[in-house]
Amino acid sequence: MKTLFSPNAQPRRLVFTTMVVAQVALLLLLWLFYPMQLFPSLGEVVRSLGDLITTQGLIQELWASMTTALQALAVATVLALGISYLTALPFFRPIAYAASKMRYLTLTGLTFFMALMVSSGHQVKLSVLIFGATVYLVTGMTSVILTTTQEEMDHARTLGMGEWRSFYEVVVLGKLDEMLEVVRQNFAIIWTMITLVETLYQSEGGIGLLLYKQNRYLHLDGVLAIQLVILATGAAQDYVFVLLRRVFFPYSSLGTA
Amino acid sequence: MTAHTYAYESPILTLQNVSMSFHNEPVLRDINAQVLDVTRPGMNQGQVVGFYGRSGIGKSVLCRIMAGLIAPTAGTVEVGLAQQAVAPGMVGFVQQRYPLFDHRTLLDNLLVAAERKYAPAEARQHVDAYLERFCLAPHRKKYPAHLSGGQRQRAAIAQQLLCSDHLILLDEPFSGLDVAMIDELKQIIVEVTTMDELNTVIIISHDIVTTTALADRLWLLGYEHDAAGALVPGATISPQHQYNLAEMGLAWHENVEAEPEFAQFVEHIKNEIRGS
């Protein structure tokens, strides 16, 4: 028990799990017995969740949003890796710099330009998501690349590796685990954007549109139910990324405290 | 004090008029030094060069120049029996924190180095031999983060030896090691230098006693004064600061630290460093 309140302590797994379960239970109990005026009760949210699943196709909408999100993430990751790795060549550094700064652009204005460039609504949605995710990923990935030290590069060079081979060994292979971490952290951005983009292009549905409708008709219980579903999906995705990192990059967590 | 029989043959490392400036500020000036292949009857005797200098004097810069990682502003560095201009990969360089590729296992770290020089099957044989010789065989599947400091250091030395052409630079190899680990590393350096006649280890260290005990040659990097007594910018290794310990009868003794001549010499070196 004492370890839970000691700085940098490492409580036993059982103690920590029990603490988390107790905290969640406390939160649920508070929600159950002391509902706030404006906040829907736990029972209402659960009922609304059931209704959303059975009558409004929540699962199908979630699946549609998730496949779009994954599609956008895959393309954005490839693009961002390419742009970031090209910073090895001074010629491409301004492009990475500009790409990174484009994260300040607003999506609403951007969708207009995208709509002029591509034909279908799905394409607009996808290209906006890809753009949005790429600029955030480039920012994270270039900062990972910038952590490369002269010692690391010199080490590769002293083994007789040329400049490209050294870059491949130290930056590409050596930091692939950190790149995966950047992708994991920025996946959340796509979920933030997807709810907005789906309301702009409503023909394909999606969980964002469902959320928008619940919001519009002031179904707060429904809004909360959908937000909780998105939260759970995000948490599950995070877990999958951690699992992938553990499986493909087992060395990754060895040096951490 | 016992002097061993020895002779000198071809040059292995030659620094000729090496100078280095950064933003027109001289850091190193006109360095001329040479390591010759020393031979002793009936055995492989490599070379150990101790290399001292005060902190911030430019030792690391000279190391990077000798390793071919940066080109000097002026002068040349030639290595090997063919005395070729140095290029990255010709000289092994074990940096202070013993870098390894953290994303590769120990075996892969050594293989990636060996495959720069040998065909895959031959590389594997060399790696296996080094793993045995450096007592690392049981750890071959571990990642560097799982290795102890001593194991990591041995692995870094083995990795550099597998792909360099006999010359290896060790930057502060004794710092942060306990007495037992220092003894272990000394043993490894002796092993490395007796593995091949041409193997040459250059030790950059602040541990004067340990390094001098291992070395057969010493270089002291310091500043010179002009006729008016003013400091000449840019550190150098002047001829009087290149010591031949074999000639002095202080090289290759098992317990040289216990000899009074050795203690006197170490004191002399310390005074020279203080005055430099």
Automatic annotation (TrEMBL), chain A:
InterPro entries attached to this UniProt entry: MetI-like_sf (IPR035906)
Localisation: Cell membrane
Gene3D superfamilies of this UniProt entry?
MetI-like
Q: Which UniProt keywords apply?
A: Cell membrane, Membrane, Transmembrane, Transmembrane helix, Transport
**UniProt keyword annotation of Membrane present:** yes
Main localisation: membrane
Where does the source fall among the domains of life?
Answer: Bacteria
Describe its membrane topology.
Multi-pass membrane protein
Q: Where are the transmembrane segments?
A: 14-34, 69-92, 104-122, 128-147, 224-244
Record keyword NAD present: no
**What is the protein's given name?**
Nitrate ABC transporter permease
From TrEMBL, chain B:
> Could you tell me which SUPFAM superfamilies the record lists for this protein?
P-loop containing nucleoside triphosphate hydrolases
**Domain of life here?**
Bacteria
Q: Which Pfam families match?
A: ABC_tran
User: Where is the ABC transporter domain positioned along the sequence?
Assistant: 13-248
Sorted keywords for this record are: ATP-binding, Nucleotide-binding, Transport
Q: What is this protein called?
A: ABC transporter domain-containing protein
Organism expressing this protein natively: Hymenobacter frigidus
